[in-house]
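Handout for the seminar on molecular recognition.
Each group receives one record of this type.
Step one: identify the two inputs.
Step two: read the structure output and locate the region that could contact flavin-adenine dinucleotide.
Step three: write two sentences on what you found, then compare them with the reference statements printed after the record.
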Amino acid sequence: MDHSRTEQMANRRMASVLSHLQNSVVQDEGRRSIPLVVPTSSPIPPQDSEVSDESQPPYSADEKPKLKWNGWGYEGTEFDLNDEGHIYLAGERYTMDSHFPNFRPWLESTIEGIDVDETSSMRDTIICPPQVRNEQFIKAISDGKCGEVSYTEEERVIHGHGQTLEEMFTLRNGQFERVPDCVVWPTKHEDVELLVKLADKYNVCVIPFGGGTTVSKAVKCPEDEKRMIVSVDMRKMDRIKWVDRSSLLACVEAGIVGIQLEERLSELGLTVGHEPDSHEFSTLGGWVATRASGMKKNVYGNIEDILVHCKSVTPMGTMEKNCYGPRISTGPDLHHVI
Ligand SMILES: Cc1cc2nc3c(=O)[nH]c(=O)nc-3n(C[C@H](O)[C@H](O)[C@H](O)COP(=O)(O)OP(=O)(O)OC[C@H]3O[C@@H](n4cnc5c(N)ncnc54)[C@H](O)[C@@H]3O)c2cc1C
């Protein structure tokens, strides 16, 4: 190919790319423009969706079993020793045979000097650092328009850590230097938009919270953060808005917990195809944000292979792509950045 023809082609392609960019630029009240991102409506639900509950209240139901404040899992679920001295799993949540008669002998023969009867000391009360208050922001969210709000020490500490051993140890024996100053539970996209707008306006720091199962300290607060910190617990945004059986697509809110999503799709004979070991507690939004991997990935791929489209709230407005196709031929892919 001669040089001028190559140049012509390059110019044509550049003109085409530029025309797309020009169409896609959003001006947000005079602030900097965001190329390649257009505020579109979400993908259109199919006429024949078997699920259509956009207007319904969230499923997350307060009647869900309560999570422990001081460790992994639900209250009442714990390993203990039975009358015969064997290790068993206490609590009523799991229906499996919860007695493990071979476990203790295995531990004792494998780990030299282990004493299964010894218990480590653990604080049974919550210790919480002082609260930073931004009164203007607190007033602005007090009408509940962004969702329910809690300022209790228990909720603040629960939302101030993930599940690394170090964080567990601090929770039980030490003290976190910094935890969120309040927790908000939005129930719909517009609640999050308003919350982020107000946080931006009053200079408040926002940390999204899914299941809190992170093992990379991603929900831990920076110790030197002087601004008020708000943990945005997404678990009341757990609706499946629609399912398109012919394209095998589903539109689901970010706060749905893995096991709940799988159960609900399995009623329709479908699967998410994503099953991290934490899927009883971790959420769809958390999977996307951490680019999670699950044990079914050899069949269905990792979460970034399964995700087709997502709508994200930023201080500059809502971002979403206007293409719902699963494959990307130009990069970088915005979803990977998110
Ligand atoms: C026992 C155990 C087993 C695990 N197994 C696996 C595994 O098999 N595979 C794997 O990949 N990981 C695994 N993990 C790690 C963890 O479960 C994953 O990183 C999971 O994706 C986190 O999801 P989450 O909902 O708990 O998110 P969180 O821990 O609450 O948050 C993680 C990050 O995502 C952000 N975030 C959460 N929700 C949103 C949202 N809606 N919008 C924007 N940002 C958000 C948070 O701000 C934070 O930065 C495991 C962890 C534990 C403790």
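Reference statements: The chain has a mean pLDDT of 84. The chain is about 30% helix and 10% strand.
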